[in-house]
Design brief:
By secondary structure, the protein is mainly beta. It is built from no helices and five strands.
Length: 68
Amino acid sequence: MDYRQGDEIEVVIDREGLGVDQGVGHLPDNTLVVIVGAAGKVGQSVQATIVAVERTPLGASILANAKS
C-alpha cells in the first residue's frame, strides 16, 4: 500500500520504541511504524496520523503521532 503524510492509520503496538514516548508496531503489509505518544501501550491498538514516510530498498518506515 502507498502511505503518505497526513494519512490516518491504526496500529497494534508490538514493543516500546527507542525514543521517549514511542511505541513500535507494524501494518498488515509489514511496514514498520514508530508512533510518538504510544509508550506504555504494548498490545493495544492505537489510532495515529502519519507525519513522515521513509522509503528504503528494504521497504518503508513510517513515523506517526498518536491521536489523543
